[in-house]
Design a protein that fits this description.
This protein has 10 helices and 20 strands. The chain has 355 residues and is α+β, with helices and mostly antiparallel strands. The longest helix is centred in the middle third of the chain and has 18 residues.
């Protein structure tokens, strides 16, 4: 595991400030300085009691990489947002003219200067549930040191797991781990959004997971989203039968006439393909497609580690791959994870249906 991306001096400082540019005022956490191995502890002490969704503004040239991972995990655990902000520097031309008694002879040309988040700081920034990079800011990597081929391999494995959990494209690691000590490789805004390092484009209108108990007392967590073409809805359900976890996919038609024979045939022969943080995931089938009301349902077998992995993400994507190009069912559909955490905890506590 890499030790540090840069020599670490005095640790990062966290300051709470009130921002009143909008209504109402909001508390913002301003984080300045190099990240130390124990910065996450100071962060937790400083932010204790703040509501989920508080913004953490990072301004750092790097620091201890392990400390950055711990800080990112602490930010995600608290469901806070992260931002690399811009700020206005010095008086604008209009202000200078006023100071000489010349009035406002032109527009205010006050310059916006961006904060920076470099090397280890980028990994801490990934911890934000929502991440925003202002156009004027600098984000990139320099001198990520791992020490030898074997340590580089171990570092990549650890960082790959972390990046997946935070919902960022793995391609960012090629940039981070191939940086030369004397070069600064910056990530432009378009690439940051493409790699979901800046995830402002993430859908925030997903439905919330709900928890219900069957008549037999089995707990089931479920969420439903509507197909983009309006043909129907797709419900995901998670339950536990003894020690085994099951994932349900239930597809229902939108209208009373139901699916056509072509659509039912296409759906019964389809293969569900999930995407988690840009990586494919195809759990094995437990029970194949079968009629369920007006629609069809399929059961998949999943491991507890799969459930934990999904729970750490902000969204997952499902595509039903069919052999029919005219059925309209072979489309991708996104699902959020809001509310899933309490369901996972409940399923783990109960141990499932023991019949």
């Amino acid at each position: 595991m890499p030790v540090a991306s840069q020599p670490v001096g005095p640790g990062m400082q966290f300051t709470l400030i009130e921002r009143c540019s909008g209504a109402p005022c909001q508390t913002v956490v301003v984080a300045n300085g190099l990240i130390a191995r124990d910065s996450h502890q100071l962060f937790q002490q400083t932010t204790r009691g703040l509501p989920a969704g508080t913004t953490v503004e990072l301004n750092s040239s790097g620091g201890d990489l392990l400390g950055a991972l711990r800080l990112g995990e602490a930010i995600r655990q608290a469901s806070h947002h992260t931002r690399i902000a811009s700020r206005e520097e010095g008086p604008g031309m209009g202000d200078l003219l006023k100071s000489f008694g010349l009035g406002s002879a032109g527009p205010d040309t006050r310059k916006k200067m961006g904060q920076e988040c470099l090397s280890a700081c980028v990994f801490a920034f990934m911890g934000g549930s929502r991440r925003l990079i202002d156009p004027e800011s600098r984000v990139g990597f320099q001198a990520i040191q791992t020490g030898g081929d074997e340590r580089l391999k171990n570092a990549r494995q650890a960082l790959t797991k972390y990046v997946d959990q935070m919902g960022v494209d793995r391609r960012i690691l090629d940039l981070a781990l191939n940086s030369e000590a004397k070069s600064l490789l910056l990530i432009d805004n378009a690439t940051a959004r493409k790699w979901t390092l800046d995830n402002r484009d993430l859908n925030t209108n997903y439905s919330t997971w709900r928890l219900q108990a069957t008549q037999q007392g089995t707990l089931v967590g479920f969420v439903t989203e509507r197909m983009a073409n309006g043909l129907g809805t797709v419900t995901l359900g998670i339950s536990r039968i003894q020690s085994d976890y099951r994932l349900l996919i239930h597809v229902r038609p939108a209208g009373p006439s139901g699916f056509s024979s072509e659509q039912r045939t296409a759906l019964s022969g389809s293969s569900p393909r999930f995407t988690l943080s840009g990586q494919p995931w195809a759990p094995p089938v437990y029970k194949p497609w079968s009629p369920a009301g007006e629609g069809l349902q399929l059961w998949l077998s999943i491991e507890e580690s799969d459930l934990d992995r999904i729970n750490e993400l902000l969204e997952l994507n499902l595509r039903l791959e069919t052999n029919s190009s005219t059925s309209g069912l072979g489309q991708s559909l996104g699902f959020g994870t809001r509310g899933l955490s309490r369901i996972v905890q409940a399923l783990k506590r109960t141990g499932g249906d023991r019949r």
